[in-house]
Amino acid sequence: RARVRLTVHEGSDARYVTGYVTPAWSDVWTRGADTCTLTVVCPDPLKYSVDVSQGELEPGGAYSGGGLPYPAAYPVDYRETLAAGATMHATLRNRGNHRAYPRLLFSLPNGSGGSVGVRWSSGDGSTGLVSCPPPAHGSQPVDVDTRRGTATYGGLDVTSGFESRQWPSIPPGSTLSLVYEGAAGGAVGWQTQ
Predict the structure, then answer these.
(1) Cβ pair 4, 18 in contact under 8 A
(2) Rounded to an integer, what distance in angstroms lies between the CA atom of residue 104 and that of residue 187?
(3) For 33-58, what is each residue's pLDDT tens digit?
(4) Is 50 exposed, middle or buried (0-12, 13-18, 19+ CB in 10 A)?
(5) To bridge 19 with a disulfide, which of 42, 89, 129, 149 should be the other Cys (CB 3.0-4.6 Å)?
(6) DSSP labels, 90-154
(7) pTM of model > 0.85
(8) Which of 4, 96, 13 has its CA nearest to residue 42?
(9) For the range 133-140, what are the long-range contacts, defined as Cβ-Cβ under 8 Å and sequence gap of 24 or more?
(10) 14/32 Cα distance (integer angstroms)
(11) Using 50, 70 and 90 to split pLDDT, how confident is the model at 66?
(12) Shortest CA distance to 45 belongs to which of 75, 15, 72?
């Protein structure tokens, strides 16, 4: 079996599926030509957009210079600055006809107190919170797969360490709003496809 990726073009939209192909050769060989049947199996029948949408949420109220940021996050990080183009909220859109599940990446510097997370609300009226403390000696983000309801760090399952596990999804033809909620210096990356 060989892995394959098939891209389907529908109007101006391009989507892909992944699967595997199994060839079945005929018993009869003809000089210069041979016939076979290719069977493509896609265990995940959903078609994903070839365009990846992604961004990063960071705490709002960042500043340069003295004074307290507003809204204040405790413990207060007086060195906090908002990265160029960063935002505290985002709206993710699902233009497909199946429920979509965003990938989330939670980051918080070593030695930071508190937790990092997102509060969310979807177009169908459901709401929730996904939140976790920083991993000990963490230098890479915690990777959250909201479709499977799992979180990994360095290849290890850290799902049980989450303070809140209300996994978001995006209804078909609708939106999902994300708002950063957590300690100063943290960030939540998101990605949809």
Answers:
(1) yes
(2) 10
(3) 778 888 989 888 777 777 778 888 88
(4) middle
(5) 42
(6) EEEE--SSS-B--EEEEE--TT--S-EEEEEEETTS-EEEEEEPPPTT--SPEEEETTTTEEEET
(7) no
(8) 4
(9) 133/108, 133/161, 133/163, 134/108, 134/109, 134/110, 134/186, 135/161, 137/110, 138/108, 138/110, 139/110
(10) 36
(11) very low
(12) 15
Determine whether 171 is exposed, middle or buried from the number of CB atoms within 10 Å of its CB (0-12, 13-18, 19+): middle
42 secondary structure, DSSP code: -
Distance (Å, whole) CA 126 – CA 11: 32
- Residue 76 has what DSSP assignment? -
Cα(192)–Cα(178) distance, rounded to whole angstroms?
A: 13
Label residue 88 left, alpha or beta by phi (over 0 means left) and psi (-120 to 50 means alpha): alpha
The encoded tokens of residue 144 equal 């959250």
Paired with 23 in beta bridges are 38
Note the residue count of the chain: 193
Distance in angstroms (rounded) separating the CA atoms of residues 59 and 183: 8
Q: b/e per residue, 53-87, with b = 16+ CB within 10 A? A: eeebbbbbebeeeeeebeeebeeebeebebeeebe
